Amino acid sequence: MRDPSPWTPRFAAPPGTLCERLARAIAEDIDSGRLRRGARLPAHRRLAIALATSVVTVGRAYDLLERRGLVRGEHGRGTFVIGVATTPLASRLMDKVIRPEGVADLSLNLPPTMIPPEAFAEAVAALARDGRLPDPSRYPPCAGWPDLRAAAGAWIAAHRPSAPAEGVLLVNGAQQGIVVSLALAAEPGRPVITEAVTYPGALAAAALLGRPVVGVALDGEGMLPEALEGALTRHPGALIYLVPVLQNPTGATMGLGRRLALLDVARRHGVEVVEDDAYALLDEAAPETLYSLDPERVWYVNSFTKPLGSMLRMGVVVPPSGREAAAIRAIQGTTWTAAPLAAAVLGQWLGDGTAERVVRGLRAEAASRIAIARAIFPGLCPQGYRGLHLWLPLDEPRAERLARRAAAAGIIVTPPLAPVVDSDLAMGVRICLGSLPRESLARTLLVLRGLVEDEGECAAVV
């Protein structure tokens, strides 16, 4: 027979649905210490009978608690408390932070919503009125329609003057551009050399392609040239993957001197570089692109999804001189071509001024969110910073503990190991500023600040 649960069944006071009130009552008792780690919760049916409610309500409450990292169900054994107590600050603000679905999600590096969903339908309607919808019986060229390629290159170059305006190939988001570039920038099986923490999507692409990943040391400007030198000596023929502007996850931006130094190392070792410039449109003061400094060696990748929203999975890749045919074959071999309807909508938005308005609005919105973050985490958000993610350096045990305690408070941060290549060189927690409504961002960051202070990391954030 199972040991009885120590918990006295109750609902928390309104407001909220029954399952929300039940989940809140259990969370309050975990927070107060009345329910300790390892305590068993009542079986679903027994609790439903005790509270005169349904088994479905109990199940939904337990699911809500599990998503918040407070409990875990074990098949055949029951549901057990695994969460830890939150800070008093977190306790006071938790109910204000938690959204109806149960979490405040700071884990995804998405831009704030700048285009409502109906704008996509309006763009399609405008294309239909003008007879410019793609022919459903034909594929566009693998690299995209020539006039749209030219328009996309010109638009990016207008906002990023050192970006290439010629030789642009359209792809289904920067992620496909990364896959194409990583596939072709070195012989099969050669490693990818990148910072010790980097964009998780690039790690996924490397794994798909069967390329090992080597992490090297970085500082406030990104990858260290001497660390790259050592890695290339140990791994000849590797390729280099870099996010030079607002590096994901650390937010570092390389100065011109660092860029030249890294390219010099690459040139001496005869290897190619993949430049992921997806965040550069947020930073009007970003230094010259790596591509402009060495177009014979650099694969340039940029994104329209970051500024224009996830409904528009469009990006560009510009291969080094002489590599266009191979890149087009790689696009053909993956998705044949960029999605025609999305490409047509992109052309509409580039032509009617929507893209221009959105980028101006996004920069203003980012500035507002950065100001909120700077007031709460000034040490993570220096003057002049323009990114929509923050990086809190922590060793692995503290990073994992902070992530668990944040989940217990209903806040999801990026899993600490997601961007990690070498945890001995860099480790921490990424905090994304774009996905929450602005009005709840400050409250959520305040709760997170309280949790960080409990970890004894005040010096890192103030």
TrEMBL record:
<dbReference type="GO" id="GO:0003677">
    <property type="term" value="F:DNA binding"/>
</dbReference>
<dbReference type="InterPro" id="IPR004839">
    <property type="entry name" value="Aminotransferase_I/II_large"/>
</dbReference>
<dbReference type="InterPro" id="IPR036388">
    <property type="entry name" value="WH-like_DNA-bd_sf"/>
</dbReference>
<dbReference type="Pfam" id="PF00155">
    <property type="entry name" value="Aminotran_1_2"/>
</dbReference>
<feature type="domain" description="HTH gntR-type">
    <location>
        <begin position="16"/>
        <end position="84"/>
    </location>
</feature>
<protein>
    <submittedName>
        <fullName>Transcriptional regulator, GntR family</fullName>
    </submittedName>
</protein>
<comment type="similarity">
    <text>In the C-terminal section; belongs to the class-I pyridoxal-phosphate-dependent aminotransferase family.</text>
</comment>
<keyword id="KW-0238">DNA-binding</keyword>
<dbReference type="Pfam" id="PF00392">
    <property type="entry name" value="GntR"/>
</dbReference>
<dbReference type="InterPro" id="IPR015424">
    <property type="entry name" value="PyrdxlP-dep_Trfase"/>
</dbReference>
<dbReference type="GO" id="GO:0030170">
    <property type="term" value="F:pyridoxal phosphate binding"/>
</dbReference>
<dbReference type="InterPro" id="IPR036390">
    <property type="entry name" value="WH_DNA-bd_sf"/>
</dbReference>
<keyword id="KW-0663">Pyridoxal phosphate</keyword>
<dbReference type="GO" id="GO:0003700">
    <property type="term" value="F:DNA-binding transcription factor activity"/>
</dbReference>
<dbReference type="InterPro" id="IPR015421">
    <property type="entry name" value="PyrdxlP-dep_Trfase_major"/>
</dbReference>
<dbReference type="InterPro" id="IPR051446">
    <property type="entry name" value="HTH_trans_reg/aminotransferase"/>
</dbReference>
<dbReference type="InterPro" id="IPR000524">
    <property type="entry name" value="Tscrpt_reg_HTH_GntR"/>
</dbReference>
<keyword id="KW-0804">Transcription</keyword>
<keyword id="KW-0805">Transcription regulation</keyword>
